[in-house]
Amino acid sequence: MTEKQTDYGRLLIGEKMELFAEAVRLAVAQKEASESTNFTWAFTGGSTPQAWYQWAAETDAIPAEVLASTHFTVSDERCVPLNSDESNFGNAERKLLAPKSVPVEHRHPWVVAYEPEKAAEAYRRTMQLLNPPGKAYDVCFLGMGDDAHTASFFPGSELLKSDGSVFFAAVDTPQKGWRLTITPTGLQACGLIVVMTLGAGKAEALKRVLEGDDALLDAPSKILKTCADKVVWLVDEAAASQLS
Ligand SMILES: O=C(O)[C@H](O)[C@@H](O)[C@H](O)[C@H](O)COP(=O)(O)O
């Protein structure tokens, strides 16, 4: 892997499998260094995490002790039932948490049965019980869309203008409906943020975020500059192909 420092965090460029392994290594190292009573690790949505879950389950990549003693959730969620293929937590549970027998009391989905604002409030309370004051998650995984969105911050998102200083929120997203998401304030309250960005389809967006002069509202992943000291980008050669 090659490493570069950017204004948006550390950038590691390598092969998919080494990036998958590095994601585990980073999270496990964070846990080993952590003094948290309840270590919290949030996954995310999209196709990359789903491939990572399958790899992690098949290869036993995550140590059993970590699986048994970590509280798992997702950093953003669509308002769909858990048994939907569109459910980010549902996918994590089906592909990794259930096959690896993570204790049910350590699985923390957003409560999508509530209307979105209530679901966000219920989730804030759950996370407040698990985490010390001022902490959103110990580890937060994110992806980036080819429109440069991350979490549920799509271009033009109100959350990028003002998130009310809460760590988690409901947001009505044009054409995509309601979503539940960590906020920019929440990202700043994470211990470690890992952004996995793979494939040629991400090359232009990655260039715009890391090296372009777009406004934050047009390239939302630029929000990661506000917490760059905690951010590690895991990027393959195809996604990095337009970087200078
Ligand atoms: O629910 C989602 O889909 C995530 O919030 C979203 O931010 C995702 O991480 C990116 O779109 C990357 O997705 P891919 O892994 O499919 O590229």
TrEMBL record:
SUPFAM superfamilies: NagB/RpiA/CoA transferase-like (SSF100950). Its EC number is 3.1.1.31. Keywords: Hydrolase. InterPro entries: 6-phosphogluconolactonase_DevB, 6PGL, Glc/Gal-6P_isomerase, NagB/RpiA_transferase-like. One of its GO terms (molecular function) is 6-phosphogluconolactonase activity. The keyword Hydrolase applies. Pathway: Carbohydrate degradation; pentose phosphate pathway; D-ribulose 5-phosphate from D-glucose 6-phosphate (oxidative stage): step 2/3. It catalyses: 6-phospho-D-glucono-1,5-lactone + H2O = 6-phospho-D-gluconate + H(+). It is an enzyme of class 3 (hydrolase). Residues 27-233 form the Glucosamine/galactosamine-6-phosphate isomerase domain. The keyword Aminoacyl-tRNA synthetase does not apply. NCBIfam families: pgl. Belongs to the glucosamine/galactosamine-6-phosphate isomerase family. 6-phosphogluconolactonase subfamily. PANTHER family: 6-PHOSPHOGLUCONOLACTONASE. Hydrolysis of 6-phosphogluconolactone to 6-phosphogluconate. This is 6-phosphogluconolactonase. It comes from Actomonas aquatica. The gene is pgl.
